Amino acid sequence: MTPSQEKVDKLYSLIANEEDARACKDISEQACTEVPRNFFLILISQTLTSLGDLLTSPKTVLTWLMTAVGAPAALIAWLVPIRESGSLLPQLLIGAWVRQHALRKPFLVLGAIIQALSLFGMVLAVLWLQGLSAGLAILGLLVVFSLGRGLNSVAMKDVQGKTIPKQRRGRLTGLASTLSGLLTTGVSIWLLSSAKEAGVLIYVLLLLGAAMLWFGAATLFSQIDEEPGETSGGGNAMQQAFANLALLRDDVLFRHFVITRALLLSSALATPFLIVLAQQHSSSGALLGAFLLASSLASLLSSSIWGWLADWSSRRVLLLAAALASVFCFIAAIASQLDGALVASIWFYPLLFMLLSIAHAGVRVGRKTYLLDMAGGNKRTDYVSVSNTVIGALLLLTGLVSAVVASWSLFAVLVLFAAMSGLGVLFSWRLKEVTAS
Questions:
Q1: Considering the entire predicted model, what is its pTM?
Q2: Which parts of the chain span the membrane according to its record (predicted)?
Q3: What's the rounded Cα separation, in Å, for the pair 27 and 49?
């Protein structure tokens, strides 16, 4: 063993909180020997992509970007649905395609490159176009970006499931989110002092920086040591994809998990309405920095804690995060009916945004870890692709319903999200424990 390998193993043993850095669970003995190296390759690459996601968030950065180029409000309303559903809906077909290949690492590299090139395209659109044409170009490139994101989502869960043992996956995801949150905090502080002065230039720099982060992640993905896994043979991808939908009918645990995840969409869908409420009191450009800082602090303060808790019980993480989301959505609903110095202050809604983002981070870490631990091999790939595709469709439906309700009353839509999260508590409670199995 080389000195550098010894250092990697020692550092991994500290993070994993174990004396034997090669202790493994749910992966092969051969894969076990590469766990420390793969852990840090995935950790750094996920940190880069998580930072890139924060710097191109449709809830904050892309919303302000579209406003800066003069895009119509009707186009801005499609940012979140396209970003999320565009990466989730195709995964039924993407999963069937990916599972036909013994190595899934190349799909990680491809997905990261697609996302990087899409962001470069957005930079050109911002520099060369204005108004409607700029907005349409950004939305079109966001569709392509989301397809690359969906490819990464399917492949990453399978690669991570093959290279990282159980009870180490949650802390890997949480630590990556914490590190990216720390880095984004610095960017947010810079934005707080620069957003009013630099205009579109700031968004160009954010997009260029995020594109380079994805190129860096692609390089790291290519270095992961992955063993060949199961394949589904040469069957038709379309037929196999729709055959996998039978999992919702036949697999009770999986169906229950998908229902729970669907209810907890509320933690993600509620956050843009906090920005809407904040903009009713102030249109200051510093709000971008404040909300981005709130988002990064949420990752920094909570993700690693959620990750460690998920390695103990991902079911209990879902339960706690759902309860917090319900409470914070209800507080936001009450705040929407108030009109005083408290809610008008620049920090009130960013703080509430941060608390709700902490709950959403718990939902994300909990459901990712739960899904990883439910199954192995191709079944894991099928679970990911089917659940993501179903959730993508439900996201569009829920987004449409919430948009209609919100056009009538912001109070009503926030109460709706609080109720959904409350039901999510009940369904999380009924989930079976899988983490320690």
A1: 0.71
A2: 61-80, 107-128, 134-151, 172-192, 198-221, 258-279, 285-310, 317-335, 341-363, 383-404, 410-429
A3: 25
